[in-house]
Amino acid sequence: MFSNTVKYKLYPTLLNRFDRFEKGYISETELLNSVNRLPVPQTEAQRKGVSFEEAVIKGIDEEEFDPEIISRVRALLPRPMLKTQVYCEYQLEDVLLYGYVDVLGKMVAVDIKTTSNYQPGCYAVSHQNFYLPALRGKGVRSLKYVITDFKDVYQEEYDHSMDFSSQMRQIKSFCAFLDTHRAEITDLRIFGN
To answer: Please, which domain of life does this record's source organism belong to (predicted)?
Structure first.
């Protein structure tokens, strides 16, 4: 029986942190700090990524980046751009997944990514892919990742036919982790509060 009750409110960045925990890249303490939204200083790579996105979309400080790379990324954005930083949410059983997609076009949503080491297909199991069903009602048929390592530009595009089984398994595992560590969680918004 389907229930409208939301027991967990999750966002892709946090689910990606859980993925890193499962793979042994971060500790349980680091994951719990993320769950509890403890402030951490922004890394240089994060700052550069945010700055690059603002340069591409808003033209802010675009002189800090290679004009050829900015031009190539802009060429992959939808025309017209209907909105930027569009809130999305999608309920999957008792889990509400939410977040923001960078650019919304008529039939495609785009998320701009920066990385130091791009691996083709790496966004196939991204939890941001749940923006697809969240935006279906707005006419979005595909989600495109436009990625740069500041030397080249890449893209990955996914549509409604994609398989979410890997993401769903991970969401269930993360919810079990949250229940196991409930006593250590101080930011109760994750439990739908």
So the answer is: Bacteria
